[in-house]
Amino acid sequence: MKKNLMTLAAVLCCTTMMVLTSCSTDDNPVTEYYDYDEAFSYTYQGQKLYYIVNPEGEAVVVSPMYPDIDLDNEESWTGFDKPQGDVVIPDYVPFNGSNCPVREVGNYAFLKCDEITSITLPTTLRSVGAYCLFSCTGLTELTIPEGVTSIGNGAFRYCTNLKTINIPEGVTSINEWVFANCESIESITLPKSVSVLGGAAFYNDVNLVSVNLQEGLDSIGNWAFGYCKKLETITIPKSVTKIGDVVFYGDVNLVSVNLQEGLESIGNWAFSSCPNLESITFPKGLTKIGDYAFSDNQKLVSINLQEGLEYIGEWAFGCCESLESITLPKSLSVISGAAFYEDVNLVSVNLQEGLDSIGDWAFGRCESLESITLPKSVTKLGIKTFFGCSSMSSIVIPEGMTSIGQASFSYCEKLQEVLLPSTLTAISESCFEKAEMLTSIVIPENVSVIDSFAFYECTNLKQVTLPAALTAIGDSVFANDKSIETITLHCAVPPTLGKGVFTQYNAKLIVPKGAADAYRKDETWGLFATIEEEE
What is the C-alpha to C-alpha distance for residues 36 and 15, in angstroms, rounded to an integer? Predict the structure, then answer.
């Protein structure tokens, strides 16, 4: 509820708990009071401002509605005259016979006071409150005095004409949204004393060209420099151990990033949608790259990841259409789903021993990738891991691999040679669908099931060898494989067949000795015109 400022006459009738200075000109300022624990006004150099005094005897600049705010209209001066022009906050204000040092500009103190053109903060100041100068659109420059250690959330957000900021040594943290949407700021230098840069601190500062981050900074919060569309280069100090999520997201003119040794993790989307990013220096000791961290960066050509890296998140380098080569370290254990999805110019990848898992779609639609050698340490592949790698001609799958996900090599249209390990027990659904250049396949001895569409439309497949352990073949596994000449089966009992496994029966079946009659009597196997027993 809004507090009504008491008139001078009313003050004279109040208790002795309230003190009134004499009325005068600017040289002898005017003080008016609420009740003892409420805001009072003090006129200095022609500007009436409002204060409270805390139990320590320190003055805090507040809005006249203190402690309330008009949330419906986002106003803290409803019904009062807002300050205009040049505002000077004194070092001291009189209260109850004492001069109280002004230590803080309180939360919402000058919210939307858009006719303030400059503000002089007192030398006694120690803290700047949250949203205290929010949307002061007439403010063009700001000097924060020495002695200030804390700047609250959104303190100067939407100060759209603010061009110059001086932040002194001693400030230890820049909190969330402090300078967000300050579209006229062109450069910023943080003092060495700042250890924490809060989330969205400079968000959408569309004219910010240069940022100087100092040693001593420990972490950079989410969205800190998001949509800073003119920022071209950034060097992260050695002291920074963590870059948060979406920190530089949408910085469309960012060209180079220098990450220093000491950095341990890069958050999700941190450098995503930076379409002009050409160069990144990755340090040793970096252990984690988050989801989408560098996705949609169309000019990134090469990546050299250093020892120490353990984890690459989902889509981390997805849709980097100019990326041609990647160097991956031996320390890497996880490549998550779609990590390099649709990197259409990626030609080579060197996967190291120590890699444990490769997620779904990890290299999906990498159309220029020609070959891949999987290390022995990889025991399973995710779904569609190499789906649509249309230039891949060969793949080496090591012994020890136990599972290949659905459609892992589907639409690898130039794949000619595949060596499958004996440790496989099943061929997954659509695993080699549309591998049109594949001419032969030997299914390993421990495979008992071939799932549906596994070799669908492998139009040049001629030789197929099936193991003794095979018991079932799913729907359409060899459908539209028009070139099959020979199918060699080592299973004495005909495997059960799903629907439409074959679309023609011209191939020769070679079956174990004594098994020909069983195949001829089978409803589907018996459709093959030529069934011979092996010698």
Answer: 10
- Residue entry with tokens 């030789």: 463
Nearest CA among 395, 383, 377, 280 for reference residue 341: 383
Domain assignment of residue 366, yes or no = no
Query: 46 is in which domain, residue-wise?
Result: 8-95
Model pLDDT, residue 37: 57
pLDDT in tens, 303-332: 999 999 999 999 999 999 999 999 899 999
| Residue 478 belongs to some domain of the structure | no
Is residue 505 pLDDT above 90, yes or no?
A: yes
Which of these, 156, 158, 175, lies nearest to 166 by C-alpha position?
156
* Sign of the torsion formed by the C-alpha atoms of 260, 265, 266 and 267: negative
Cα separation, 228 vs 208, whole angstroms? 6
Amino acid of residue 517: D
Residue 26 lies in a domain: yes
Flag whether 91 is in a domain: yes
End-to-end CA distance of the chain: 99
Considering its fold, how many domains does the chain have in total?
A: 1
Distances (CA, A) of 513 to 26, 519, 520, 532, 535: 114, 11, 13, 9, 7
* Residue pLDDT, tens place only, 179-194: 999 999 999 999 999 9
The span from the CA of 447 to the CA of 459, in Å, is 23
